[in-house]
Design a protein that fits this description.
By secondary structure, this protein is of the alpha+beta class. It has one domain. The protein is built from 1 helix and 4 strands. It has one helix at 60-72, and strands at residues 22-27, 30-35, 41-45, 50-54. The protein has a 4-stranded antiparallel beta sheet with strand order 1-2-3-4, covered by helices on one side.
Length: 76
């Protein structure tokens, strides 16, 4: 199976005053959003599917491993 993304649509833009305080990072098919004011790191797939929140940047790997394990076994 192959998936092609032809269009990405911004559903809700980031507030202007916060844009400079946020960092967005892509790692493979995952996207992380770093916020200077919080240690939690929200994570999505590149297709916009919610993965979860890592308690800190060091916990991202475990969050992804848990997500991939659930996804590979068919659990949600």
């Amino acid at each position: 199976m192959c998936l092609y993304v032809l269009t990405l649509e911004v559903l809700t833009p980031l507030p202007e005053h916060r844009t400079s305080e946020l960092g967005v990072e892509r790692n493979g098919s995952y996207i992380y959003v770093f916020d200077a004011d919080h240690t939690d790191v929200p994570v999505w797939t590149e297709n916009g599917i919610w993965v979860g929140i890592a308690e800190n940047p060091g916990a991202i790997a475990q969050l992804l491993a848990d997500y991939e394990r659930r996804h590979s076994t068919g659990s949600s």
